Amino acid sequence: MSEDITQDSSGFAIRARIDTTKPHSARFWNYFVGGKDHYEVDREIGDQIKGIFPGLVDVAHTSRRFLGRAVRYLAGEQGVRQFLDVGTGLPTADNTHEVAQRVAPDSRIVYVDNDPIVLAHANALLTSTPEGRTAYLDADLYDPEAVLRAAAGTLDLSRPVALMILNTLGHVSDYGQARDLVRRLLAGLPSGSHLVISDSTATSEGMIAASNAYNSSGAVPYHVRSVEEITGFFDGLELVEPGVVRVPEWRPDGDGDDAAAAVDAYCGVGRKP
């Protein structure tokens, strides 16, 4: 594990780990939100899935705007100054640190991913206000304790932390294991910390068909789950109103989302008592 990737983020070793022959979830999602960090293989499966289920593009955009609303709520209304963003994906506009530091310039943010394509672009996530700090960990969700140990180099884990896991847990095929990973991450955070989750859900035939097409493409599979399963990640926490809802319905604030949009993605924010 490496906390500081700035020394080799453009090196051959990282580039050699990037497989451009198969679709990749971070690049695929980047294509859907209008980014530039994707290859032909990602665009091909993206266009195929848009033909099957155009609504997945709405899921990508509304999920991104949910991130902004959740971070503004936590930094602005709850006074959270520390964010641990696990499975961050490729940098786009309004990343967690940009949103948080606009509200509170002294915010500290640690990004976690172990994917070489994300690692190669991670310098874009390391900008910061003079008052705050950002860091990137080349670390694995499947080793929560190691993530927490490394994050402690930037964050004060005796003070509340917002744990962000957005559009990531679907990569963990076993639901029980996914819940255990979340539990272990939260176990290392103090009372007053928050869990923020959003994920695509098996709430329409179109989304299920899109998921099956993506999983058949050779990419690392992504498993869409039921709303009840998404809710289960928050067991033992105090759910922030309005609870687990479709992503546009979580505290809409005029950011461009239609709160009534029936997207197949649910989210929630919970506080650790």
Task: Describe this structure as you would to a colleague.
By secondary structure, the protein is α/β, with parallel strands linked by helices. It has ten helices and eight strands. The protein has helices spanning 12-16, 25-32, 40-52, 55-76, 96-103, 116-120, 144-151, 175-187, 205-215, 227-232, and strands at 82-86, 108-113, 133-138, 162-166, 194-200, 238-239, 245-246, 265-271. Strands 1, 2, 3, 4, 5, 6, 7 and 8 form an eight-stranded mixed sheet that branches. α2 (25-32) crosses α3 and α7 (144-151) runs parallel beside α8. The longest helix is centred in the N-terminal third of the chain and has 22 residues, at 55-76. It is globular.
| End-to-end separation | 31 Å
* SSE order, one letter for each helix or strand: HHHHEHEHEHEHEHHEEE
Give the biggest sheet.
Answer: 8 strands, mixed
The general outline is globular
Helix content bin: 25-40%
Number of helices: 10
Mean pLDDT, to the nearest integer, reads 86
Low-confidence stretches: 1-10
What integer value in Å does the Rg equal?
Answer: 17 Å
DSSP strand tally: 8
Structural class: alpha/beta
Strand content: 5-15%
Keywords:
273 residues; alpha/beta; 10 helices; 8 strands; 15% strand
Describe the structure concisely.
By secondary structure, the protein is an alpha/beta fold. The protein has 10 helices and 8 strands. Strands 1, 2, 3, 4, 5, 6, 7 and 8 form an 8-stranded mixed β-sheet that branches.
Topology:
Layout: H1 12-16, H2 25-32, H3 40-52, H4 55-76, E1 82-86, H5 96-103, E2 108-113, H6 116-120, E3 133-138, H7 144-151, E4 162-166, H8 175-187, E5 194-200, H9 205-215, H10 227-232, E6 238-239, E7 245-246, E8 265-271
Parallel strand pairs: 1-2, 1-4, 2-3, 4-5
Antiparallel strand pairs: 5-8, 6-8, 7-8
Helix pairs in contact: 2-3, 3-9, 4-5, 7-8
